[in-house]
Amino acid sequence: MSSPQPFKLNVSDADLDLLHKKLELARFPDELQGAGWDYGVPLADVKRLVARWKDGFDWRKSEAEINKLDMYMRDIDVDDFGSLNIHYLHQKSERPNAIPLLFVHGWPGHFLEVRKLIPHLTSSSPDHPSFHVVAPSLPGFGFSEAPHKPGFAGFQYAEVVHKLMLSLGYNEYVYQGGDFGHTIGVFVVNKYGNTHVKAWHSNMPVYRIPTFFSNPLLFLELLTMPFNKYIRDKVQNSLQIRKKEFGYFMVQSTKPQTIGYSFADSPVGFLAWIYEKLVKASDNYPWTDDEVLEWISIYWHSRAGPAASARIYYELTHGGESSDLFEGTTWTSVPLGVAHFPGEPISLPKSWAHMIGKVVQESFHEKGGHFAAFEAPEALAGDLRKMFGKGGPAYGVVPGKDGY
């Protein structure tokens, strides 16, 4: 592993000029009258966002704000995949004995999801724990180098983020994630749990469907579905979401290269693809146009281009052949905190979270969705403070770290 190199974002003028030329030449599809969101993103929304991206959105202003964060690059060696140059944010607390916390994003997220959390987590107070926050761009996302050959899956992503923490001197740390950040978390705690990962927290606590052999009690609970309204509603809602909202999942799991040409060449097409997920997966979050465009721009200006990130779906599903995103993992005794947000599309029976690991804390929030760190940072930070604070179920799990 190399030494860290400070990183400042600086998209070239040529890249920005090319983007604006492509936006100038945009050709839009027609739209059925009264279609609303039933057929996909409404035409008026995309036209408005494209006009703003082309003539009003100030990327240089966003870039300057992003560069206020402490960002770095570092080479990480991955078994059988060589060295990858990884981008990460490392925001330290003023408190020296703060708890090292690894925050991992998913798709269509990125490292900036953690930005609203940082003030809450790094603040120093005699009333709550404080954290040193590390938020990498996963390989192929943001400004990290992408893998160069097939087969880079769950344990490889886990190896990258774990080795990053070790390189920073954090031999023991805690973890937080949602979406693929949760999925990778399962691999991290399976491979490095207890010895290095002392506890973790998920805001999308999903795992496998219970079977008679994996968990007889939960399997029997599933059989009560015909007359158990709670179980029935949860399962039916999950099936409806998969039926109506998972087209992107099937495409990216089976043909990421094919859709990648559209991602790489059409900023309008890519904007619509991601904007749909931002709206449909959040809890009526009032997205501003500039928030959306900054989010999209992180992908558009990413190191490997916007197509590279889609390949994580192919690798974790073996090209769509497997529905088990957690292949090779089992239940672990690493203390786990779970948060349930009402707008999270993938919401399963709460009892199923216990198949993931040793659940020591569970919270239920009145507001927030899939992008909890961005939509409801105070609530998520409150969960972490409660979990790792005095009297909490994971207080003192990292020896010598935050006793306040």
Query: What's the order of the H and E elements?
Result: EHHHEEEHEHEHEHHHHHHHEEHH
Helix content: 25-40%
CATH topology-level name of one domain = Rossmann fold
Structural class: alpha/beta
Main sheet strand line-up: 1-2-3-5-4-6-7-8-9
**Rg, alpha carbons:** 21 Å
CATH class of one domain: Alpha Beta
* pLDDT averaged over residues: 96
The counted number of beta strands is 9
The DSSP helix count reads 15
Describe this structure in words.
The protein is an alpha/beta fold and 404 residues long. It has a domain at 68-224 and 330-388: Alpha/Beta hydrolase fold, catalytic domain (Rossmann fold, 3-Layer(aba) Sandwich). It has 15 helices and 9 strands. A 9-stranded mixed β-sheet has the order 1-2-3-5-4-6-7-8-9, sandwiched between helices. Helix 11 packs across helix 12. It is globular. The mean pLDDT is 96. This is Epoxide hydrolase. Belongs to the peptidase S33 family. The active site is at 179 (nucleophile), 313 (proton donor), 370 (proton acceptor). Residues 4-114 form the Epoxide hydrolase N-terminal domain. It comes from Lentinus tigrinus ALCF2SS1-6.
In short:
The protein has 404 residues and is of the alpha/beta class. Helix content is 39%, strand content 15%. The mean pLDDT is 96.
List the helices and strands and how they pair.
Blueprint: E1 5-6, H1 13-24, H2 43-55, H3 59-66, E2 71-78, E3 82-91, E4 99-104, H4 118-122, E5 131-136, H5 154-167, E6 173-177, H6 180-192, E7 197-202, H7 216-223, H8 229-245, H9 247-254, H10 256-265, H11 267-281, H12 289-300, H13 311-317, E8 332-340, E9 357-364, H14 372-375, H15 377-388
Parallel strand pairs: 4-5, 4-6, 6-7, 7-8, 8-9
Antiparallel strand pairs: 1-2, 2-3, 3-5
Helix pairs in contact: 1-2, 5-6, 9-13, 11-12
